[in-house]
């Protein structure tokens, strides 16, 4: 169940199952799924189940849930190197205005192009 949502938000719709996604993990506070435009194989997004554009607008319990989940997803990808990225606001390159964390595996060049 999503705790605060915005009807027009695509990530709120993904949490509610109104837009399909490749789901990875779900907790009381977060929902994780594969990015539709992956920068590398396994590129995932971890999003709080609370609609807020930027992370400073999130209650702490949502924020606290995200990093342990991002860690689990990064480990499950099976490559030692990865990026955790997070953008707040258009000037900072945020395209979807629902706070989210990218987990981007960085395979060696021989494994993948990323
Ligand atoms: P941002 O630039 O806001 O940090 O990243 C937004 C990310 O959301 C992008 O990497 C984009 O590919 C991803 N994205 C946008 N719309 C969808 C969607 O409908 N489904 C999924 N799985 N990912 C999406
Ligand atoms: Zn939302």
UniProtKB/TrEMBL annotation:
Residues annotated as domain HIT: 10-114
Transmembrane segments: none
Coiled coil: none
Domain of life of the organism encoding this protein: Eukaryota
Chain ranges for the short sequence motif Histidine triad motif as given in the UniProt record: 98-102
UniProt GO molecular function: catalytic activity
Active-site residues, record numbering mapped to chain: 100 (tele-amp-histidine intermediate)
GO biological process, alphabetically ordered: nucleotide metabolic process
Official protein name in the record: Predicted protein
Species in which this protein is naturally found: Laccaria bicolor (strain S238N-H82 / ATCC MYA-4686) (Bicoloured deceiver)
